[in-house]
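Internal ticket #5521
Category: modeling
Description: The requester needs a full-assembly model to guide mutagenesis choices. All entity lines are attached below as received. Residue total reported by intake: 780.
Assigned to: D.W.
Attached entities:
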Amino acid sequence: MNLHKEDFAGTGKVFAFTFRQLVFNKANIISIVILLLVSILGMPVMALIKGESFSFGDKEKTAIVKIYYTNDSQTKIVPKDIIRQDDTFAKIPFQEADFTLSELKKNGYENYLKEDEVYLDITDTVQVYGTDSVNMEYESLAQAAGEALQLNRFTDAGADEDQISIAQAGYGTDTSTMSEYYKDKEGPGWGIRYGVQYAYAIILMMLCMFTTSYILRSVIEEKASKLVELLMVSVKPLALIMGKILAVMLYVFAMMFAMGIGVGISSLLTMVFMNTSADLSSIISAATGSTISLETLQIDPVFIAAVLVSFVLGYLTFSILSGLAGCSCSSMEDMESASMNVVLVLMAGYMVSVFAVNFRSIAVIVSLVPIVSIFCAPIEYVCGNIGIGVLILSWVIQLAVIVCLFRFCARIYQSLIMYKGQKMKVMQMIRLAGTIKKEQTKQTHAGKEKTS
Amino acid sequence: MSLSVKNLSKKYGEKTALENLSFEMEKPGVYALLGTNGAGKTTAIRMMLNMLSRDSGEVLWNESPLDTATCNIGYLAEERGLYPKYSLLDQLIYFASLRGVKREEAKKRIHYWARRLEVEEYLYGMQSKISHTPQKKGLFSGRAAAKSAKPKKADQLSKGNQQKIQFMTALLSDPELIILDEPMSGLDPVNTDLFRQIIHEEIEKGKYLIMSSHQMATVEEFCTDIIILNRSKTILQGNLNEIKKSYGRVNLSLKTEQDITTYIEASGATMVSEKEFEYEIKVSGEMQANELLGALIAKQIPIIRFDLREPSLHEIFVTKVGEANESA
């Protein structure tokens, strides 16, 4: 099947019509509104349900409700000094205790402190006591009080601000072995690679899964409604299937993008109104369960281009596979099994990519094998495991796969357009495509002979 | 312009779906594809339109392979289909745009055909009618009016109305070649007349029409040439008038005021039916009919009607198919 310009005539019209119908479809509008609402309201609602501010990172609001304190040190400290060190405690009432530490220990905490109340004892040491057995906030309070004590000691000794900052500057230490040195040179560590690979693969997989069902429905619906026979007198099969696939791709991508924006708005809302923060790193960290600092990845235009190109190629590949699966069906009943086939391929690619992240030695192989390379190549490149040359080669291979898939898909679509029966199996489709090619070659030869 | 179909053949495994179908249309008119169920009419049409691959044969339009790029084709498929949940107007504009009709021009044409085929209310809603009708005062009157004013979706239409919309689709691009696969099936007599009228207009405009149908009377009304298919083979082909002439005038309708059975038997003609002195008789030719007429006049039997004619398409079809089946 040699491609000609006229094979693509009408693609734009099919694309525009399909996209328009998807956008203005009532059920789709309702779905998008629900998805947007869920993504926008998700974080604030979770925060409200928990009764505290929600964040992906550390908690910024304390559970302590009251702080009793005694100061038996030689240095004067007021609550403001402690709050200056850690404003987490700004809204908590401080009260000078009318009991001592020895009384507290002797008679039991519960006789002096109610739930979530603490006692801060400042002498030469700073100690915090409360009813909870373990509480990280006690540490924070003790540290803030200790720093306030230290600062006030310097001030009382007559030191100015500069002297105090020099005295408090501190120092760091670092050690390194040879193997660690070479590991650092190789790029980001396993945790970061795993996190980024996981995040990228899961986003691509989700997008493809969404798109698969939309494309399948769109292709099968048209075939089942017998409309396709009417369309075929106006537009070539390649243009018809291509326009349809591209329209669904754009629609689902726009939907996911809107959801992304929704999550952004949600994050902003929680940040502004609930005094929390959720940046990209912490979202990825929360999703993948690993600690990621995006600074380590050096996000620059090349990084963005590498990820985007691979993403688009991957998305296109799976969308065509979905179209192909749709071509093999003649009724909506077959949709589920057709969808399962695509999801299996998708899952295989995804699983290999997550598995392969453990082995740098196979980075080049997984970056070049079609389907798997969609998930692996950009991340292997970003992590420095493959060079730009391998990445471009991976794109070229993927592009060739896409062109072949499109042609195969158009051929199958045309052949099965009038087909009614059970869903075609992959091997049957391959055999069918082979037969069509032979027929076309025979016809072309016959035409040439006739002309000569 | 001319259409040439040469040796179209198709096999599904061992089963032959169509065998060496050939015909030519050198001038505008209607070519009828007739045949029993499963004879291969729809397969032939789909092969002509490249929807089914051909084992052999070619279809030429002005000496070039028939293609959407070389010929403006209007097609009414046997299996009708529309997008069930999309607006009818959007669908029609889309179908027209695929045939290269600009949006504004498409809207004009849709409006014209909607009026002709009496489907305006389904495409545009009932606004115009409602605006002329005084609104009833009541709690739900406004809402009810708004509901009835909505344009319809395809799945809300009756089969006949869906067929009208699809007929519109076939005609929207003002096609040079119109292919109608069973255009009248499922239509009521009023709508059948409407379709017939439009088909006549298209013939007058000088269009090339290919029509497949089971309704012989309808086809006979339009077509100049026919092909009869039986079990994938062509069993009769040619100009309808010439085919009829070749059979001669063998059908005699007689109406008298008394029983003439003995005279019919004496003439050697075969009586097909008789009802209250109305006779349908099969004669061997004009001579036998005239002999019978002479005998009746000689006996001074009053004759109310004497109608000697060629066989109808229906009769030719049944005869040819019967013969083919017997020989098979």
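Resolution: model delivered.
Comment from assignee: Chain B touches chain A through 30 residues (CB under 8 Å).
Ticket closed.
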